Amino acid sequence: MIKNIILMGPPGAGKGTLAKQLLAAYPFTHISTGDMFREAIKAGSELGKLAKSLIDDGHLVPDEVTIALVKERLSRDDCANGFILDGFPRTLPQAKALEKIAEEISRPIEIVVNLDCDTNELIRRISGRRVCRSCGAPYHIETKIPQIEGVCDICGGPLYQRKDDNEESLKVRLGHYVHDTKPLLDFYRERNLIKNFDASGGYEQIFDQVFAYLNK
Ligand SMILES: [Zn+2]
């Protein structure tokens, strides 16, 4: 059974949905760097204090600090049954550091699940997204239509389109994504860890394929 996973894929490919489905089916721990920072800052650990002072001063958290936090997080007991890394690594130095950490703690990365998705399909998904201003519930003008147009089914709040959820912004984000992740994909391809899944179909379909692959 494969259990130590990195999730990769462009915005709109369905990474978040896939992560939720995997977490419901397996005893994996979800590791997102955002949550990790918030938790370390709240706990007041040395690394948390350092990260907080950098963020408060408007600096980016340097790789060394992020990597030290990832090492501490992946070493914990709840990662013994597997983990899903989401949003890390983002850069080649981070990927190299992660490889070293994973080896040191004997929890090697076993697969990089890469969601491939047709650009037009990503545009269709993202430009059709609407969000409830009151409760944050997600909608879509074609695939998840509210009962009353522009009104949240759950709380009656007004639906709106996020500023970034338009074709122009998405094309810019996708350009950055492709540019930033290419070296990472090459790095993992050389190590034979990449497994591509076509995410242009439905979410169910990807989940079944990933599920079958992990159980091999
Ligand atoms: Zn709502």
Provide a brief overview of the structure.
This protein is α/β, with parallel strands linked by helices and 216 residues long.
Give structural notes.
Helices cover 48% and strands 15% of the residues. The chain is of the alpha/beta class. Helix 1 (15-25) packs across helix 8, helix 2 (33-43) packs across helix 3 and helix 4 runs parallel beside helix 5 (92-104). The longest helix has 24 residues, at 167-190. It is globular.
Keywords:
216 residues; alpha/beta; five-stranded parallel beta sheet; three-stranded antiparallel beta sheet; 48% helix; 15% strand; globular; binds zinc ion
SSE layout and pairings?
Elements: E1 4-8, H1 15-25, E2 29-32, H2 33-43, H3 46-56, H4 63-75, E3 83-86, H5 92-104, E4 111-116, H6 119-127, E5 129-132, E6 138-140, E7 159-160, H7 167-190, E8 194-198, H8 203-214
The structure holds zinc ion (ZN).
The site of zinc ion has 8 residues, from loops.
Q: Helical percent range?
A: 40-55%
Shape: globular
From the structure provided, what is the oligomeric state, counting identical versus distinct chains? single chain
Percent of residues in beta strands: 15-25%
* Intertermini distance: 6 Å
Give the neighbour order of strands across the main sheet: 2-3-1-4-8
List the uncertain runs. none
Query: How many E-type strands?
Result: 8
Arithmetic mean of pLDDT? 91
* Secondary-structure element pattern, one letter each: EHEHHHEHEHEEEHEH
